[in-house]
Design the sequence.
């Protein structure tokens, strides 16, 4: 019985993470492939090759990105942008999506600074990511504050706190490593030390 239990646990520890990564990767692949792939399938039928939808999506995004830098099409895209920012309800959704993409891919990337924040009236600290150093644009009394996103362990959810600048200490750590550390509950740092 001990032999069975030991090997079952070993199987869980080694095989289940591999299966889950392959499953999630497959689901992401099929979702991305279906975006434009479902449009092509009726025309190509048996000649459709999985992955063509992803390649076409990437090509279309690249083409639209190039068009946005051209004079005439750039003006049209800018007009659509301004229009979406004025329609009630849609402007909220649009600005959240746009700001989120710009924070990860734009020139002023968020999550590029790892912050160590001391919890008030305790000696405990939490790891977070600076999402904005200019929160006074949101509300003037917050001019000496930073927006710090504190993720929760074992999930992607988290909280955004507005913290006085003097209470935030910056860590010289890669954001990816800090995110892995937080999301894994600290397990990742232990593993990397054991490997080294």
Sequence:
């Amino acid at each position: 019985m001990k032999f069975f239990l030991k090997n079952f646990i070993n199987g869980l520890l080694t095989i289940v993470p591999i299966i889950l990564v392959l499953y999630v990767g497959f689901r992401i692949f099929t979702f991305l492939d279906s975006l434009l792939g479902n449009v092509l399938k009726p025309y190509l039928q048996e000649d459709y090759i999985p992955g063509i939808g992803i390649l076409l999506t990437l090509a279309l995004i690249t083409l639209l990105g190039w068009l946005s830098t051209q004079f005439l099409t750039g003006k049209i895209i800018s007009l659509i942008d301004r229009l979406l920012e004025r329609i009630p309800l849609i402007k909220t959704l649009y600005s959240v999506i746009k700001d989120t993409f710009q924070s990860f891919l734009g020139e002023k990337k968020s999550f590029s600074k790892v912050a160590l924040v001391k919890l008030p009236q305790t000696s405990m600290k939490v790891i977070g990511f600076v999402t904005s150093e200019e929160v006074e644009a949101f509300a003037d009394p917050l001019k000496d504050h930073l927006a710090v996103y504190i993720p929760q362990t074992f999930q992607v959810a988290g909280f955004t706190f507005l913290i006085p600048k003097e209470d935030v200490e910056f860590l010289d750590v890669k954001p990816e490593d800090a995110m892995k550390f937080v999301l894994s509950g600290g397990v990742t740092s232990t593993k990397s030390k054991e490997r080294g």
